[in-house]
Amino acid sequence: MTEPVGIRVEGVRFGYPGRPVLRGVDMSVEPGELTALIGLNGCGKSTLLRIAAGLLRPDEGRVLLGGDDLARLSRRATARRVALLHQSAPAVPGMTVRQLVRQGRYAARGPLGMLREGDDPVVRRALRDVGVADWAERDVDALSGGERQRVRLAMALAQDTRVLLLDEPTTYLDLHHQLDVLQTVVRLREERGLTVVLVLHDLAHAARFAERIVALRDGRVVADGPPKEVVTPGLLADVLRVAGRVGQDPEGGWPVCYPDHPLQGLANDNRIH
Ligand SMILES: Nc1ncnc2c1ncn2[C@@H]1O[C@H](COP(=O)(O)OP(=O)(O)OP(=O)(O)O)[C@@H](O)[C@H]1O
Description:
The chain contains ten helices and twelve strands. It has helices at residues 45-52, 75-81, 97-103, 119-129, 145-157, 175-192, 203-209, 227-230, 233-238, 266-269; strands at 7-16, 19-29, 34-38, 60-65, 68-69, 82-85, 163-167, 195-199, 212-217, 220-225, 242-248, 255-262. Helix 3 (97-103) crosses helix 5 (145-157) and helix 4 crosses helix 5. Keywords: ATP-binding, Cell membrane, Ion transport, Iron, Iron transport, Membrane, Nucleotide-binding, Transport.
């Protein structure tokens, strides 16, 4: 197993035209840590992951992967270090699951765009990791939303990077497969020394599976720490705009939330400019 790699986000500011999103984000993820990123819709979680994956350049600040400044790395060098599962992975009509997952190997391609020897085992392993090997020859178009989501995860794993950024990896999944995917991520993190950041809307999952929770609001990090310290009624109110109680799982010890009702005033509070 290779040494895990840490991520440092330093003073990152970013906006889309007319829409400031990140207003000075500092976040440090230790090598091998599993961090959950939480916050309201539109607060900038996906944008932050895209910046950490090198797909967007920050207007200010920088991202370091294992000490390397992303701004100094080529597209291919970045793709060898960090993989992003995002919500809109491309699928060409008629593409099979195996073909889509092979797209995750693009960072390893040689100068002529050919897959190098040894790539297929990585693709096969990625298909197995998320339990989709039996569908390898199926058309991606013919998969359900949840099935496609697992294939997207396999595609990210096929990139075979030490840093994995997962944007809502449990979207579309039934409860069985949500837990299955999260446990798979935990297992792979341990087995392969991965550093993982995942965006989760389900605070129960974040509290149970993550070692660390980072909460975004108004374009800044407003809470950062282990679930037991961070998950409080104040976090529910201030970050997720719900009133609720927080207890503790009697067996696992992790925080358990009992959300009650949405708090008013979201439209104003979520407006950051
Ligand atoms: N390509 C884009 N062009 C312009 N604005 C964008 C673009 N992508 C996102 N935005 C805006 O930037 C803000 C942050 O979006 P982002 O997708 O990062 O939020 P998020 O926290 O991931 O939201 P969600 O929980 O809904 O997925 C939103 O207001 C969104 O409308």
